Amino acid sequence: MVVQHLAQNLNIISKTTHQHTRQQRLLSIELKELVGQFYQRDDITYQLPGKRDYVTVTDDNGESMTLKKRILLYNIRETYQLFVNEYSNKNVDLSLTSFNELRPVNILIHSYMPHRSCLCIYHENVNLLIKPLSKHISCDGLNLLQEFTSMLGCDEQEEKCMFSCCHLC
């Protein structure tokens, strides 16, 4: 770089006038609102019940408002995959990084969940078992918790299947 600069100053080589500029595409307002609404859904996030579980934000007009804190039920990658699967027919072109950056400030990731919330063996140990199991067994359904639970029963929306009372499962 130094040699090139000296050669340009002595007119040995021509000075470069073209600089590479990266084109940054702007996300539409509709897409930003769609992602924001997706994060606010009850099947994606859990609203914390405490009276201190609020966050204060200022909007574009400078007015402050309080929003209830919500915790993601999945990790960011799983939430992104749910978003892509649900809106694949609308040709939504959004990267995982952009999806994470569009996360509202009142939506917190799972690690911020207070310990007074449910961390029982039935809910948390499944995640701890799936991670090492997916490294040793090559199966498509072992990567995400939602895919794993859908493989356990014939219908994950049916209560009998999830409580092991179904005769077909």
What is the overall number of helices? 7
Radius of gyration: 24 Å
Basic shape: extended
Percentage of β-strand residues: 5-15%
Domain tally: 2
Query: pLDDT under 50 segments (min length 5)?
Result: none
Biggest pleated sheet: 3 strands, mixed
Strand order of the largest sheet: 1-4-5
Written as H for each helix and E for each strand, in order along the chain, the element string is HHEEEEHHEHHH
Helix- and strand-based class? alpha+beta
Distance between the termini: 67 Å
Mean pLDDT: 82
Helix content: 25-40%
Number of strands: 5
Brief digest:
The protein has 169 residues and is an alpha+beta fold. The protein contains 7 helices and 5 strands.
Sequence-ordered SSE layout with sheet pairings:
Blueprint: H1 2-9, H2 29-39, E1 45-47, E2 54-58, E3 64-68, E4 70-72, H3 76-86, H4 96-101, E5 107-108, H5 121-136, H6 145-152, H7 159-162
Parallel strand pairs: 4-5
Antiparallel strand pairs: 1-4, 2-3
